[in-house]
Amino acid sequence: MGSHKAKPKPTEFTCTRCGNCCRGEGHVYLTPEDVKRISESLGLSRETFLKTYTYRHNRRPVLTNKPNMDCIFLEKSLCAVHDVKPRQCTKWPFWKTVATDPASFSMAKSYCEGLKEFEFEDFKKVAEREELLPRP
Ligand code: SF4
Ligand code: SF4
After folding, report:
1. What does the DSSP 8-state code read for residue 23?
2. Residue 77 shares a structural domain with residue 34
3. pTM over 0.85
4. Does residue 101 share a domain with residue 81?
5. Phi, psi (deg, nearest 5) at residue 69
6. Does residue 70 share a domain with residue 99?
């Protein structure tokens, strides 16, 4: 009688395609496999791709941003290279930092719509089923 049902805890992550993880500061680092896959899909040589779409940070290639800080490949909130997107993007938000560090989780939750309903502990449980990205 009059019992108050607690909201069910989220049991899986669902991306709302808000595009927020592709905007703003933050580096999209590319692995050598990412560079190969994306340059091939764009029909560019590795060198031309690197020169046109990346710069170096911590001695690794990183995707450039548009003047408004959107990722260079973000188009109308969608990824223009979706099928070949960088590993780092494919794994989001299942990064080790997000799943193990409450501060990183809060930061991620502040802009990722799919994390909105999650508390850290719930996300940790869901993340246990995933292979986490060790570091970006
Ligand atoms: S490569 Fe695609 S998924 Fe990754 S940040 Fe850019 S637009 Fe987003
Ligand atoms: S911020 Fe989260 S919900 Fe939005 S597109 Fe990225 S992964 Fe999906």
Report:
1. S
2. yes
3. yes
4. no
5. 80, 0
6. no
Residue ranges making up the domain that contains 76 = 24-86
CA of 2 relative to ligand 1 center, distance in Å:
47
Report residues whose beta carbon is within 6 angstroms of any ligand 2 atom: 15-21, 92-93, 111-114
Distance between CA atoms of residues 127 and 32, nearest Å: 26
Domain count, the chain: 2
- DSSP annotation of 22 reads G
Ligand 1 centroid, distance to 82 Cα (angstroms): 7
Q: Which two tokens stand for residue 131?
A: 């292979």
pLDDT tens digits, residue range 47-72? 999 999 999 999 999 999 999 999 99
Q: Which residues pair with 79 in a beta bridge?
A: 74
Q: Residue 16 Cα, ligand 2 centroid: separation in angstroms?
A: 6
Ligand nearest to the CA of 110: 2
